[in-house]
Amino acid sequence: MAEYNAEKIKVLKGLEAVRLRPGMFIGDTNVRGLHHLVYELVDNSIDEVMAGYCKQVVVIIHNDGSVSVEDDGRGIPTGMHAEGKSGVEIVLTTLHAGGKFDSDTYKVSGGLHGVGASCVNALSKSLVVTVKQNGKSYVQKFEYGKPVKPLEVSGETKETGTKITFLPDDKIFETTEYKFEILKSRLQELAFLNSGLKIILIDERTEKKLEFCYNGGLKSFIEFLNTGKNVLHNEIITLSKDSMVKIEIAMQYHDGYQENIYSFVNNINTIEHGTHYTGFATALTRLINNYNKDKKLADVSLTGNDTKEGLTAIISVKVPEPQFEGQTKSKLGNSEIKGIVDSFVFEFLTNYFEENPKTAKIIVQNCVNSARAREAARKARELTKRKGLLGSTSLPGKLSDCQEKDPAKCEIFIVEGDSAGGTVKQARTRENQAVLPVFGKILNVEKARVDKVLKSDKLAMLISALGCSIGEEFDVSKLRYHRIILMGDSDVDGSHITTLNLTFFFRYLKPLIEKGYLYIALPPLYQIKKGNKIRYAINDNEKEVILKEMGNDKIGIQRYKGLGEMNAEQLWDTTINPETRHLKQVTIEDAVEADRIFSILMGEEVPPRKEFIMTHAKTVKNLDV
Q1: Which CATH number fits domain 218-375: 3.30.230.10, 3.40.50.2300, 1.20.140.160, 3.30.70.980?
Q2: What pTM was estimated for this model as a whole?
Q3: 59 neighbors 180 (Cβ within 8 angstroms)
Q4: Cβ(470)–Cβ(443) below 8 Å
Q5: CA dist., res. 441 & res. 497, Å (int)
Q6: Could you give the residue numbers annotated as active site?
Q7: Class of 390-523+560-588 in CATH
Q8: What phi-psi label fits residue 296: left (phi over 0), alpha (psi between -120 and 50 degrees) or beta?
Q9: Do residues 168 and 123 lie in contact, with contact meaning Cβ atoms separated by under 8 Å?
Q10: Computed from CA positions of residues 15, 20, 21, 23, in that sequence, does the dihedral angle turn out positive or negative?
Q11: Tell me, what's the pLDDT at 620?
């Protein structure tokens, strides 16, 4: 046994801890963590916006993979600190250092721990900061978190602000390629949350440029979110209160069946909600139940799920001293915020309902319909249990299960069609690979309530096979497979079936996507044969590469239309064998944009879908006709 003494205790100085354990500070070192670096810097600029000193933020993705974030705020202090370094160097090299700890500098702030800018510096190969302040322009360069030389004057200027350009360290991050669409979604979100703020996103790699500026604020945000949805009332209800805790809420109901409520604290997206969300939801349920009872509209008791069905809402609060759970700030913990939001929302909506009885009646009737559908779903659930479809011990007859019982080691192929399913059963490894063939297209759940979902034999069979149920009875600990693989044909019908499956998982089993359990199999489009040598390509680009490697003489190319064209051995080699197959993991980088796209593509409204198709038609590849 190795000796454990005082010499074994290591003290990490400066930014060493960040470089050694980056996941503690930015979540991970993959795509999410990479983009989180940009968010940390942008959040600092947004703090200047909330303080009233910044009107524009510019984000640029450069050709060399570096990113710049520039604002026209006050600029990081350039004067000498008591530590013997400039304020700029202190902020960029010292954990828990910044103006966020001084309530006179920032009344409210998204960056609370003083680690954002210093984390970015620590995880970058190089970083250059330019500060415009007091009539001068200052510049300082860093490498791997350490200053190359002290802050120096680089010129004169009448402008103010901060610009930071950084190049992420490819030895730390699994990928260093920034995705335009991911940054676009977050920056657009911030523009909605800060009425009148202009945010510019430029991608030098593709010469793309977008500008976001919404004078309508949260109202514009709701209009954007409800694109493709059939709204139940034209007016977007807006609530605002400006005091020690600033509250802004916008809400509108549509005829869909999903809750779409997004909550923010100091412009930070609290994806796990928290006390501000709880206060809103509690007040809404109490109010609608009271209104229904007073007006004697229906003899039902409404739950929180009933009052939130079909609701799109934004809850944005500005809190002087928010208490978040963890550095990633996914959940608000301040207990006092619940009561503040609850009382304000209840009082405001009580008056609104009395002054707008027509809208109030539409909203309450929608909630009543939800309650009745919930009761119908309960009966449907009991019926399916009696049939053995949702029982914890009963599995669907079409399921060919695996022998392994540890979910972490198990995977299930959801296969399109009985024929392909039979071939997959022959090819799979019975020890840990299960197969469930599903013939034809499943129900489009974007247009169906949970009671119809449970009455669908195909979906009930799928729910039963997974074991974790849906809705109120959902329990991720009962999931029987930690790798769920959607396997469809490489044609239009196969893509449509995959889209229907993705809609079901997004709307009813979203936690499985968030935990990384859902995958899409990528069967080959081509078999390329030369003599006895056979290779496979999953797309045209890969096909061209293989053709160049094999030479163009005497080559046979077969284009697969479906899984059924491959025998068991070919399916194993190309799509099932973990050593050689191609899988695409399904992730939700931006829940707001994902919800909007599902509503457009799978919802009732045709015009938004037509506009989407016309906009993106030129970029479509491999469309079978």
Answers
A1: 3.30.230.10
A2: 0.76
A3: no
A4: no
A5: 6
A6: 416, 489, 491, 493
A7: alpha beta
A8: left
A9: yes
A10: positive
A11: 54
